[in-house]
Design brief:
Family: Belongs to the cytochrome P450 family.
Largest sheet: 4 strands, mixed
Organism: Favolaschia claudopus
Number of domains: 1
Bound molecules: protoporphyrin IX containing FE
Helix content: 40-55%
Shape: globular
Strand content: 5-15%
Radius of gyration: 24 Å
Pathway: Secondary metabolite biosynthesis
Keywords: Heme, Iron, Metal-binding, Monooxygenase, Oxidoreductase
Protein name: Cytochrome P450
Number of strands: 10
CATH class: Mainly Alpha
CATH architecture: Orthogonal Bundle
Structural class: alpha+beta
């Protein structure tokens, strides 16, 4: 019996070896894009960076150019390092370049319903259209402003109370706004059960998105572990992941459904779409499932609130490092709206430097520096280079945002690069065109995110000053990963003035 199993295993290994070798030989005969030299079988496995991937990718651009090809364990991957290449392939040839590779851990954790990770096709299109009907509509976005205001107010109040804990306050703020907007639920403290579940789901999503998970796919090994060798522990971990995902997918939705039925629902993404009485039933109608699954995506599926919170952390770090920028932004706020209230959305047009600070923070270090991979669905030729079907295609967001032609002196934090004669001017270099990905898969939450970040930026700067303690390092440092956070740093946050402190205390009372 045992020898049969060994024989079968050997046959599979030898078969795989020859398959990979054949594919390798076929592809090298064509004119693939340049890239680091692969080894037989493992390809460029050992060239793949383990930390700060964006630095290695930048080096590859210098060595090999705008389109770089690697092959990891037989899996072709192309990195696009210029606006020209991302525009030409991911945007203009979007029909071919909009598929997604499989993310094995996402499937195992129970995210198959999530359109962010679905193959390009009808189902993806229907879900995305429903999502965009709210998140890309000017009217709906305006109706979300109260949710942004509530979470921004909780944030400044919490910062005043515990300034050292600013990161956690940002995290809470991002999750709070998502629950408010999607379900009309008020979850303004860490004690709320949904927040813990959302956090747990986001941790798994972050792991699932890290390149080692989707390139090497250790899940197949995990699944093969026998129960006596720890397989039981793996199985119960997976069960917990799936239970968390299902709770987020069903529980808040069911609450809204009940409140729509008894007429007490607050306006929200879910309630707005469920208002049609035809839609609500026993939970099995296609329309109801569609609404439930698109609402849940914004919670944990794409790590959206984590991305927004990391963008907030980058802003806080940049302000701590650049007191001159802070002062300039605060002068703008004082001269436009005075010191007796906090900025609001109506002030946005008149505060161009604040918008520029928000945009420069996103540019300086994008929370998802290498985006989410696309997959090519048919063989393609670009500038004489052959790109095989099934190839993963990564738009190298970090590289685009540090292009010295589009952003002169790219390693200097300089919001004024987006200001011309006192007005906001980013017609040719708006970082949001790259930060949120590309083509048909571009982030459908980008306008919503900018609203959220803008209010946080404006209100934080109106209320507080931040500095570094004496002797602290002035070098910004970021962790590696698909979602890349600033490394923890010490800082001192104080209310800007007695008047600012009073304003925040007043918010706390209301
Ligand atoms: C700073 C915050 C955010 C950043 C940096 C960000 C960035 C991205 C990126 C790079 C992608 C992949 C695009 C591509 O495949 O080319 C993406 C996809 C997506 N984002 Fe965001 N995002 C943010 C916030 C949000 C928010 C708040 C929401 C929801 C309200 C959201 C919803 C989505 C969805 C649903 C997708 C999948 C789109 C698809 O596959 O069709 N994102 N985002």
């Amino acid at each position: 019996m045992l020898s049969l199993a060994i024989l079968a295993a050997c046959t599979v290994c030898i078969g795989t070896y020859f398959l990979l070798l054949r594919r390798y030989a076929r592809q090298t005969r064509r004119h693939l894009p340049p890239g680091p030299r692969p080894l037989p079988i493992v390809g460029n496995l050992f060239d793949m960076p383990r930390t700060k991937v964006w630095e290695t990718f930048a080096k590859w651009q210098q060595l090999y150019g705008d389109v770089v090809y690697v092959n990891v364990l037989g899996r072709p991957i192309v990195f696009l390092n210029s606006v020209k290449a991302t525009t030409e392939l991911l945007e203009k040839r979007g029909l071919l370049y909009s598929d997604r590779p499989q993310f094995p851990l996402m499937n195992l954790a129970g995210h198959q319903w999530n359109f962010g990770f679905m193959s390009y096709g009808k189902e993806w299109q229907t879900l995305r259209r429903t999502f965009s009907s709210q998140y890309n509509s000017a009217v709906a976005l305006r109706s979300f402003h109260d949710a942004h205001r509530a979470s921004a107010a909780t944030f400044v109040v919490n910062v005043l109370k515990e300034p050292k804990d600013v990161s956690n306050h940002l995290r809470l703020r991002s999750a709070q706004v998502m629950f408010h907007v999607n379900y009309g639920l008020s979850v303004s403290s860490w004690d709320h059960h949904f927040i813990h579940t959302a956090e747990a789901v986001m941790e798994v999503v972050s792991l699932a998105l890290s390149p080692s998970m989707w390139i090497v796919n250790p899940i197949s090994f995990l699944n093969a572990i026998p129960r006596w060798l720890g397989g039981t522990a793996v199985a119960s971990m997976v069960e917990k992941w799936q239970a968390d995902v299902n709770e987020l997918r069903y529980a808040p939705f069911d609450l809204v459904k009940e409140s729509v039925a008894d007429g007490s629902a607050k306006p929200s993404f879910t309630a707005n779409l469920l208002r049609d009485p035809e839609t609500v039933g026993d939970g099995t109608s296609a329309q109801e499932i569609l609404i439930r699954d698109t609402a849940a995506i914004a919670l944990g599926g794409e790590s959206q609130s984590k991305l927004t919170f990391v963008a907030g952390e980058v802003f806080i770090l940049m302000m701590a490092l650049h007191e001159d920028v802070q002062r300039k932004a605060q002068d703008e706020i004082d001269s436009v709206i005075g010191t007796d209230r906090l900025p609001d959305f109506n002030d946005r047009e008149r505060l161009p430097y604040i918008t520029a600070v928000m945009k420069e923070s996103l540019r300086f270090h994008s929370p998802a520096p290498t985006g989410i991979p696309h997959e090519l669905s048919q063989d393609d030729i670009y500038e004489g280079m052959y790109i095989p079907a099934g190839c993963m295609v990564m738009g190298n967001i970090w590289q685009l945002l540090h292009d010295p032609v589009m952003y002169p002196d790219p390693f200097t934090f300089n919001p004024s690069r987006f200001i011309t004669e006192g007005s906001l001017d980013c017609t040719t270099n708006d970082p949001s065109r790259y930060v949120f990905g590309f083509g048909r898969r571009v982030c459908p939450g980008r306008l919503f995110t900018e609203d959220s970040l803008w209010l946080m930026t404006a209100q934080f700067l109106a209320a507080f000053t931040i500095s570094l303690p004496e002797g602290a390092s002035r070098e910004p440092k970021f962790a590696a990963g698909a979602i890349s956070r600033p490394l923890p740093f010490e800082h001192i946050i104080k209310p800007r003035s007695a008047a600012a402190q009073k304003m925040i205390e007043h918010l706390q009372e209301t």
